[in-house]
């Protein structure tokens, strides 16, 4: 009875402490980005936190990128998306949206010295767009009429850079986002008036998380009524806010935008990303090696079924692009089974299967490269197949496999960067988040490239040392 009473007493508290998983972009200032202290801030994030506090629920905001956030919500990995998401008829077919919380429109921006002033001047030229955005959809509706070509980028910084470097003549973006970027130092200019005015909304899957949606709407109304909503908006969009940010950027240009300054300012964030990359690499190498050896051995044992299974798995896993495999495991499997898979676990499984298949191929090849007479001689001396393989064949084949193992370790390290697509905050994803704030793409990517080279050098040195000891 006492236990029953205790359970009744704690259950409401547990219900009140439910934590919702909310996906966001964090490369979309002023709505979501990492500030100079690498804390996630912005209109969307501040609004969501304020509403959660008002309505007494908890949120865990996951910086996984817009496309990854939408796909994760569709597969049930997260509960909702708050990422400057425009409410469109197409999206309303799949998602339930909150009451609108911000009105927007789409504009075209060009380089500061560009002579392009309207859509007619785009004919035959290239225009940069960001994948998955309503602004990109709007631009696509104009494409045939005005005869321009489009190129798609995953993040805003690369889209902006394509225009500033002259590869594209223009880009399309939401008006408040472009205004904020320009006011805080982006070297572009807006040449059109906001078109197709729409609204941003918080999204959940259609028919799901209706309680969360209701709480959001109730909280939003309260924030608008008590004035907190306007404070959050003005915090990022009024003239004093953008002037302050521009002044900070200007001051930081000399001190913090050098290679040394950027390293000092972002060292903790870079170290966090580096730590995650190393963790992914080490765990994946171990799992891929074990899986690859087993799969490779399966291909050489005297059984047609085992050999056929090995060949088929190697063919399938090597044939699938790593990006597709990662998305299938992280989003596809949960959609089919209803079981959530963490991004880190999905990343480990992806690398283990893909790299393991390549490992299996050269393990199988290394064993088959040993003269068949070795096995026949061992069997004729009365040794079993297993003992012949362990004592005679594998020691010889291993020496031929070592260079391939070293190469595969390096490939595994580099392939961790692809996992940024499912929102793992490894080194590459960390770089994207930093660049979204300071727009220093060249310097940040140079720093990250050097870090990768140092890691590869250390890994190669360690692998060579192990190879030397084995062959000694």
Automatic annotation (TrEMBL):
Keywords: Cell membrane, Membrane, Transmembrane, Transmembrane helix, Transport. InterPro entries: AA_ABC_transptr_permease_3TM, ArtM/GltK/GlnP/TcyL/YhdX-like, Iontro_rcpt_C, MetI-like, MetI-like_sf, Solute-binding_3/MltF_N. One of its GO terms (biological process) is amino acid transport. It is a multi-pass membrane protein. The keyword Cytoplasm does not apply. The keyword Transferase does not apply. It is found in: Cell membrane. SUPFAM superfamilies: MetI-like, Periplasmic binding protein-like II. Residues 274-463 form the ABC transmembrane type-1 domain. GO terms for cellular component: ATP-binding cassette (ABC) transporter complex. The chain crosses the membrane at residues 280-301, 313-333, 442-462. One of its GO terms (molecular function) is ligand-gated monoatomic ion channel activity. It comes from the Bacteria. NCBIfam families: HEQRo_perm_3TM. Belongs to the binding-protein-dependent transport system permease family. This is Glutamine abc transporter, periplasmic glutamine-binding protein. The lineage of its organism: Bacteria, Bacillati, Bacillota, Bacilli, Lactobacillales.
């Amino acid at each position: 009875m006492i236990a029953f009473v205790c359970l009744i007493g704690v259950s409401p508290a547990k219900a009140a402490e439910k934590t919702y998983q909310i996906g966001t972009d964090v490369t979309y200032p002023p709505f979501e980005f990492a500030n100079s202290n690498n804390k996630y801030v912005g209109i969307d994030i501040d609004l969501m936190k304020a509403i959660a506090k008002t309505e007494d629920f908890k949120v865990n905001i996951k910086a996984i990128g817009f496309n990854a956030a939408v796909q994760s919500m569709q597969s049930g990995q997260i509960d909702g998306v708050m990422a400057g998401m425009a409410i469109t008829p197409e999206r309303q077919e799949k998602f339930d949206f909150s009451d609108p919380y911000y009105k927007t429109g789409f504009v075209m921006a060009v380089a500061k010295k560009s002579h392009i002033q309207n859509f007619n001047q785009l004919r035959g030229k290239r225009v940069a767009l960001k994948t998955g955005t309503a602004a990109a959809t709007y631009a696509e509706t104009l494409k045939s009429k005005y005869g321009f070509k489009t190129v798609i980028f995953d993040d805003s910084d690369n889209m902006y850079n394509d225009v500033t470097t002259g590869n594209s003549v223009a880009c399309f973006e939401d008006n408040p986002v472009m205004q904020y970027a320009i006011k805080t130092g982006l070297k572009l200019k807006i040449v059109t008036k906001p078109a197709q005015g729409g609204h941003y909304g918080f999204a959940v899957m259609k028919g799901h998380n209706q309680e969360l949606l209701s709480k959001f709407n109730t909280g939003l109304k309260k924030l608008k009524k008590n004035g907190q909503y306007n404070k959050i908006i003005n915090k990022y969009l009024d003239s004093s806010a953008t002037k302050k940010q521009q002044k900070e950027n200007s001051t930081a240009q000399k001190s913090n935008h050098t290679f040394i300054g950027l390293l000092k300012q972002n060292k903790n964030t870079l170290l966090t990303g580096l730590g995650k990359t190393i963790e992914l690499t080490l765990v994946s190498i171990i799992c891929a090696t074990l899986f690859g050896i087993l799969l490779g051995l399966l291909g050489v044992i005297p059984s047609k079924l085992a050999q056929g299974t090995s060949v088929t798995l190697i063919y399938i896993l090597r044939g699938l692009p790593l990006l597709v495999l990662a998305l299938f495991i992280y989003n596809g499997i949960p959609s089919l089974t209803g079981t959530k898979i963490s991004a880190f676990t999905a990343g480990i499984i992806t690398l283990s299967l893909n790299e393991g298949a390549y490992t299996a191929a050269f393990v199988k090849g290394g064993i088959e490269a040993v003269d068949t007479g070795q096995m026949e001689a061992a069997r004729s001396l009365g040794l079993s197949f297993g003992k012949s393989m362990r004592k005679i064949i594998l020691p010889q084949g291993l020496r031929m496999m070592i260079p391939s193992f070293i190469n595969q370790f390096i490939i595994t390290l580099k392939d961790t960067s692809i996992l940024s697509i499912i929102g793992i905050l490894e080194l590459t994803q960390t770089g994207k988040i930093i660049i979204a704030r300071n727009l220093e793409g060249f310097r940040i990517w140079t720093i990250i490239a050097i870090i990768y080279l140092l890691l590869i050098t250390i890994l190669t040195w360690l692998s060579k040392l192990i190879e030397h000891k084995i062959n000694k």
